[in-house]
Specification:
It contains 6 helices and 9 strands, in the order H-H-E-E-E-E-H-E-E-H-H-H-E-E-E. It has 264 residues and is α+β, with helices and mostly antiparallel strands. The chain has one domain (71-262): Pnp Oxidase, Chain A (Roll). Strands 1, 2, 3, 4, 5, 6, 7, 8 and 9 form a 9-stranded antiparallel sheet that branches. Its EC number is 1.4.3.5.
Length: 264
């Protein structure tokens, strides 16, 4: 799973995020020592790819044990416990999650976003309403979230309806974050065609300057979304492949949760 570069505007940089160098926010990284600027990278051979792929292993360390009989009645409580466990175990970026939506053509789409919160009202994330995912959620307000914490051999899947927050919630969400997050939200038109990296660099630098000069600036299309799950599945991996799959289900958002095990 790759989650180090969430879709622009959907992931808020951490509080200490800074431009690549003073006065040049968003400057692209310099080419490597053996690559001429603009030159295509040397292709990886099929054999090299297959060799790298088949050397991969999962769960180098012994995963923790999970007794589903001890699971709480509400999946939110188990999610919070597993999240804190993953963070304390040193799992990089445990707050990143894969958001799956459906396009107007009925085809699935997915990207990595950052979790902004989880409570009785749902699991929160944010983006521009005019982004690809914003348009898809407006047309089909249902989605799935997937968390993977390989250091603990754990996954969590959530499926349900998606609701949008108020304009006040969107403003508070954006301005609770770093200057970099605000600059990202003010930069360009997410998911629209981009003519060149230089166009992005120019818009990004202007956005950084605006965010620094006017911390109260707002991106009017910034939207808080909540996924309200009707189904939640918790997966605990096992080195002997005796994986535990615990599924929670409820008939409606206000309904009571039932739970049971699934064959792995």
């Amino acid at each position: 799973m790759t989650h180090s570069s969430p879709e622009p505007g959907s992931a808020a940089p951490g509080p200490h995020t800074a431009p690549a160098s003073p006065g040049t926010p968003g400057t692209p990284a310099a080419p490597g020592p053996h690559t001429a600027p603009g030159a295509p990278a040397a292709p990886v051979t099929p054999d090299a790819f297959e060799s790298a792929l088949h050397r991969m292993r999962v769960w180098e360390a012994e995963p923790p044990r999970f007794d589903p009989r001890t699971a709480p009645e509400d999946p939110l409580d188990l999610f919070r416990a597993w999240f804190v466990d993953a963070a304390e175990a040193g799992q990089p970026e445990p707050h990143t999650t894969q958001l799956a939506t459906v396009g107007a053509d009925g085809r699935p789409d997915v990207r990595t976003v950052v979790l902004h919160g989880a409570d009785a009202d749902g699991w929160r994330f944010a983006s521009h309403a005019t982004s690809a995912k914003g348009g898809q959620l407006a047309a089909h307000p249902y989605a799935a979230l997937h968390f993977y914490w390989p250091l603990r051999a754990r996954q969590v899947r959530l499926r349900g309806a998606v609701t949008t927050g108020t304009a006040q919630e969107a403003y508070a969400d954006l301005h609770a974050r770093s200057t970099g997050a605000l600059a990202a939200a003010l930069t360009g038109r997410q998911s629209a065609p981009l003519a060149s990296p230089e166009e992005l660099a120019e818009a990004n630098e202007a956005a950084w300057e605006r965010a620094a000069a006017d911390p109260a600036a707002h991106a009017p299309t910034w939207t808080v979304y909540r996924l309200v799950p009707l189904e939640a599945e918790f997966f605990q991996g096992d080195t002997r492949r005796r994986h535990v799959r615990l599924r929670y289900h409820r008939p409606a958002p206000e309904g009571a949760w039932s739970r049971g095990l699934l064959w792995p």
